[in-house]
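Write out the 3D structure for:
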Amino acid sequence: MTANAYIKLVPSSEAENISTEMIKEYFHYYKEITAKTGNQVNWTYDEAAFPYKIEEQPDAKGSWFYLRSDEERYNLIMLGIDKEVIHDENGTDKLQSFIQITLPETATFGDKGKANEFCKFLAKKLKAELHLFNGRVMYFYPRK
């Protein structure tokens, strides 16, 4: 069964809009900082920490991409961007950007764990609202 998590960019987030290129930059940064952790403990931790590579289909440019792994316990995570209409406190309609993280039916428990880690990392960096796979919500933005 597929599962979805969402990172919603709220008005107090770092950015109002997101692109797949920005997510890819965060992905590379995440891989870089996990590799540094491995260097500190003298272990090749970067591949074990997040064993995924970016794959993009030609028809999906700019809207979604895969994180695919060749490791035994991992398979696939899909990331995409979109916008939804929300009603603000004044009753006006606004567009809100969000990132959708999808675990397809072929995803493993390892994929779910790594997807949760990456979701939390992205939500912290973007100061966003994270809707986890289990339906719980985490707030990483300043709340009033």
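The two ends are 37 Å apart (CA to CA).
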